[in-house]
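user: Here is a favour to ask of a fellow structure person. I have my own habits and do not want them to colour yours. Could you put it straight underneath, so I can go through it closely?

assistant:
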Amino acid sequence: MNAPAPPFFAFDNSYVRDLEEFYVHWKPTPASKPVLIRLNEELARELGADPAALASPAGIEILAGSRVPEGAEPIAQAYAGHQFGQFSPQLGDGRALLLGEVIDRNGERRDIAFKGSGRTPFSRNGDGKCALGPALREYLISEAMHALGIPTTRSLAVVATGDMVRRDRAQPGAVLTRVAASHVRVGTFQFFAAHQGPEQVKRLADYVIARHYPTLAASAQPYLDLLAAVGERQAELVARWLGVGFIHGVMNTDNMTLSGETIDYGPCAFMEVYSPGTVFSSIDSAGRYAYGKQAGIARWNLARLAETLLPLIDADAERAVQAATAVIDALPERQAVHWLRVFRAKLGIDETDDAEADRTLIDDFLRILKQDRLDFTVAFRALFDAAAGDATRLNSLMAEATDFADWRSRWQARQPTHSPDLLATMQHANPCYIPRNHRVEAALDAAVDDNNLAPFERLLAVIRAPFDERPTDAEYAEPAPTEFTTGYMTFCGT
């Protein structure tokens, strides 16, 4: 490593300071010829950093992992996880490093971490590297999720390393710099419950409460309340995913954060034709993480977290199980509340006490989308247009839908008038632009194969303003051709 770099970030590393033995000190692998591909200047300023400094030669070396900045204490975090239902007792940061933490301009603590910075003690048989395509995919999708108002990790930078990585073919390598509320996962709790016991789990739980749920510190049952609070955030998060047709693709317990942010954009995608069974991940052959199963998986993952907390919830094992089970069993109702709120907004209907009737109205519209194989995003956006006074697109879209006339009458009777506030809420529940899968693939292919970032930059600009329709961007609102969608698969990118 070169001499210490200037202080690009004002680090304050609580995980290292408070949780010794929960990580391994490690350094990133230097890149041979680092080149800055993309810098998120807005996010850099939010973190208190100078974008110009990060884009300088010294800054690029830092973002490539070739220099460790002053104040950083890079570590590989330990965690376990259930992967597709099977427990792996040791996973950990196999190609990632937590560089450190900063307090951003809003007073929030944020992790700054690398992805693709080389082998660590947790790499197993992997090379610890990341290809440029997956790094750019995470940058694009995470920024889209942020623009859609969905809690998510964000991408600060992508740097090409100048080194090739071997996947199905040789591909250019890259380092992604990711920013998160934290990287503590359900799998983090599982690792310490499996290897070191309740005392270490308690240290971790206390840390999470202090960092993410400080009001629980005064609770009479802080660990049971922590379980409920994590469940509430996950219930809301998954409801928001469902509202935009997002499919995570790999909801393993090591990909479920305690903070309630979306993390790890590997085989993720946005659904086009509505179908609850939609799966895009090449490794999800059984459909475990299909669009319509994500809420159930969140509950399953929460139960795995509960198992690690049982000794902290109550010294009596039977009482602990009963208390935790009550929290787990209450989650579907909380998920239904959040789902109803999301889809009421999408239909432009206000919140009333007649939840069952509204659920039926929503379900009937989704049934029409499914049976007529209609695009999820286009159909809901057409509803917004109609509510705003222009039913042209909706009439065209539903011309062959035999059940739609009756449904439309019920919808209009439910909300005869739309106030400006309700219309604004409806608009921001129904994006015009999402990262359409064919557009994503075209942008990544151009960047990786042709060294052409223009399609990526254009797509990024479009999805960063998803709610305001623009004639110049009309092609980005169009569904993918059928021949593209049929058989389309995404990959984990490891």
Q: What stands out?
A: The chain has two domains: 14-183, 216-494.
